[in-house]
Design brief:
Chain B: This is SDR family oxidoreductase. The structure holds 2 protein chains of 2 kinds. By secondary structure, chain A is of the alpha+beta class. Chain A is built from 8 helices and 19 strands. Chain A has a 9-stranded mixed sheet. Chain B is of the alpha/beta class. The chains are: A alpha+beta, B alpha/beta. Bound molecules: NADP nicotinamide-adenine-dinucleotide phosphate.
Chain lengths: 349, 256
């Protein structure tokens, strides 16, 4: 499927799959007409950090790009997990990028006004833990000045922060956009409000989604901190008690809600870290449906979708999407996938 | 400034400034500086924005507020400001769009006003607050959903409603801002975000001195008095009451 080549003002398309397996294609602007009174839609309010930093590896004198990829400790900006790239930028697809010089603990990096030290090389030579010099204010100011949003080779025009913040973006904690949220507008939310559909939010620090290195990509998603406000947990638990549906806007919301669901399928509010991997064998406890982008076999997001529907169903959705000229990736079209009745699914492994 | 009705609030808990997360543009002089000082005295967490670095640092040091250097009239500055504001304050409850550009002084009749100067007035006084509000709207609505209230104050002027000769560019920008404020308020009240347009009245500030150098300053309001009125209006908006009541008290003030 072709990737969407940038943020767009058009509404885009939406493919829906209901719980009995019926597929339909409509305009995404109709998303406000979906769902039933009493259902609750949950979205992620994470704003995206300018996580791509060009700079210098001091020991080798070589140019590098650092992509901040995850938190070491929730929202402590002095320490990040990061992925190193060699010289060059996003115009070269990640899988063809030069390797970075060998990095060792103690190595120093100059990233525009920011100074960082390699604290540790994690379980891959390009996956680092970095420590930044300065206090929170100085580091945020440095990121605001020098950092750029993580870019994509298939988006020719450089992305600015305003391109990668969804309408709901509130706290800058994500490393890449929780991009399913691009399907929401304030107009859609007001339609839901008028129709008695509840809307609630959480924040989930979406980490880097791919690195171009299959070995490294296998380690994704990294652990991601999240926070569920008490009102959100209450709205979800109430909807479930009353037999209404919980619709997650994006994979990050699924991951957070399932991580925060404890025995008896009750969602707990508060801070947590999502370490769970969701896939075909996951028995979803809380989420009934997901709105997401178009994902293809091999992506970690695709694995997560297998918790909602079998590969055969997902594949037929993707075939239909290709036939209808759907666009993939961050700024592409959307899919609404309701969890298929368990009995109908050939048993998960 | 309009007298606010207080009878409705008599038996309700009084909100305070303590712990509120507030951003003030133009916080280094005049009304903005007085707002930053009073907010900090009241225990609010405050971020201020202005263009001149030394002044920003001086006020940050004096008040313990977070100082951010930026120009609200520049598109490129808005998101970096929003990133630092929300990243430092951990969210936002109140945004006060106070920074303003008078344009070149002495003020001129419209026929003598360069188009570029009208554009600048619109960029700083109208489009800037719009951009900043949009960039921070996610944070403001998140605050409202969590049961904290959210308020946006757009500082207006009597020049927004009266046709004062020589005040055309500035007045048009403030008239536009007044109208945006009322439409924002209509659209955002169901989301729990209130928009107030407040005319602080003629104050003894550098802006006033630049516009009317020979004014009798003893006749002018102290910016401190205007600031405490603005904060009272914010607190009233934050206190539980009928939405209709809020809207009226905030927008129908007599021009001073
Ligand atoms: N004074 C009056 O009589 C009067 C009457 C009615 C309404 N008002 C309104 O009250 C508000 C405050 O006025 P004031 O008299 O207190 O003004 P002031 O003393 O001149 O202060 C203006 C503040 O705004 C900052 N500022 C100016 N342009 C900016 C920009 N592009 N980006 C960011 N910050 C900027 C200035 O710092 P930098 O220059 O360093 O950026 C300064 O901190 C304004 O909205 C004004 O229109 C005033």
């Amino acid at each position: 499927m072709r990737p969407a080549s940038g943020p767009s003002r058009d509404h885009g398309k939406l493919m829906t799959l209901d719980s009995s397996g019926n597929m339909d294609v409509r305009s995404r602007k109709d998303v406000g007409l979906l769902f039933e009174p009493g259902d609750v839609v949950v979205a992620n309010t994470a704003a995206t950090l300018p996580a791509s930093l060009q700079g210098l590896h001091v020991q080798s004198g070589q140019d590098i790009e650092i992509r901040l990829a995850g938190w070491v400790e929730a929202y402590d900006v002095t320490r990040f997990k990061a992925v190193a790239f060699g010289a060059g930028d996003y115009r070269v697809p990640t899988e063809h990028r030069l390797s970075p010089p060998t990095m060792r603990p103690g190595d120093r990096l100059r990233l525009g006004p920011l100074r960082a030290t390699v604290q540790a090389v994690l379980d891959h030579s390009r996956l680092l833990e970095l420590r930044f010099q300065g206090d929170r204010k100085e580091i945020l100011a440095g990121l605001a000045r020098h950092g750029r949003p993580i870019q994509y080779a298939y988006v020719p025009k450089p992305l600015e922060l305003w391109d990668v913040w969804t309408h709901l973006a509130a706290e800058p904690i994500a490393f890449e956009s929780p991009s399913a949220g691009f399907a929401l507008s304030w107009d859609t939310l007001s339609r839901w409000q008028k129709r008695g559909i509840a809307f609630a939010t959480l924040s989930h620090a979406a980490g880097i989604s791919s690195t171009g290195d299959p070995d490294l990509d296998q380690r994704l998603p990294l652990d991601e901190p999240y926070e569920i406000p008490p009102r959100t947990a209450a709205a979800i638990n109430k909807a479930r008690l009353q037999g209404n549906r919980v619709i997650a806007i994006g994979t990050t919301v699924v991951r957070a809600l399932e991580a925060a669901t404890c025995s008896g399928c009750v969602v707990r509010s508060g801070l947590g870290v999502a370490r769970n991997l969701i896939g075909a064998s996951t028995n979803l406890c809380t989420v009934d449906a997901i709105v997401t982008g178009v994902h293809e076999h091999g992506e970690s997001h695709y694995e997560l979708l297998r918790a909602f529907a079998d590969t055969s169903v997902l594949e037929s959705m993707n075939q239909r999407a290709a036939a209808e000229d759907f666009q993939a990736h961050e700024f592409g079209d959307s899919m609404l996938i309701e969890r298929q009745a368990r009995a109908k699914r050939s048993q998960a492994v | 400034m309009k007298q606010h009705r207080t009878d409705l609030r008599k038996h309700l808990p009084t909100p305070t400034l303590s712990g509120l997360r507030v951003a003030v543009t133009g916080g280094t002089s005049g009304l903005g500086l007085a707002l930053v000082r009073q907010l900090r005295e009241g225990g609010a967490q405050v971020a201020l924005v202005a263009r001149t670095e030394e002044a920003v640092e001086r006020v940050a040091l004096e008040t313990g507020a977070l100082g951010l250097v930026g120009d609200v009239g520049r598109k490129e500055d808005i998101y970096p400001l929003a990133l630092q504001l929300t990243g430092q304050l951990g969210g936002l409850d109140v945004l006060i769009n106070n920074a303003s550009s008078l344009g070149p002084t002495p003020l001129l009749p419209l026929a003598d006003t360069d188009c570029e100067d009208l554009e600048l007035a619109l960029a700083v006084n109208l489009v800037g607050p719009f951009r900043l509000t949009k960039a921070l709207f996610g944070a403001l609505t998140a605050s409202a959903r969590e049961g904290r209230c959210a308020v946006v104050v757009n500082v207006s002027s009597d020049a927004a409603v009266n046709a004062y000769p020589h005040w055309g560019a500035y007045g048009a920008s403030k008239a536009g801002l007044l109208h945006l404020t009322s439409v924002w308020n209509e659209e955002a009240k169901s989301l729990g975000v209130q928009f107030l347009s407040i005319d602080p009245g003629d104050m003894d500030t550098p802006l006033h001195a630049a516009a009317i150098p020979d004014a009798d300053t003893s006749q002018l309001k102290r910016p401190e008095d205007a600031a405490s009125e603005v904060l009272q209006a914010v607190l009233q908006a934050l206190s539980p009451q009928e939405p209709e009541e809020r809207f009226q008290s905030s927008l129908l003030g007599e021009p001073s």
